[in-house]
Amino acid sequence: MNRRTSRYRPGRSLVTGASSGIGAEFARALAARGSDLVLVARREERLTTLADELESTYGVRCRTVPLDLSEAASGRRLRDIVPEHIDLVVNNAGFAVQEPFSDGDADDFERLVAVDIRAVVDICSAFLPDMIGRRNGIIVNVASTTAFQPVPTLAVYAAAKAFVLSFSQSLWYESAPHGVRVFALNPGPTHTEFFDVIGDSATATGTYQTPTDVVATAMRALDARRTRPHVISGRRNTAQAALAGVVPARVLLPALARMLH
Question: Which of 73, 156, 162 has its CA nearest to residue 119?
Answer without folding.
Answer: 73
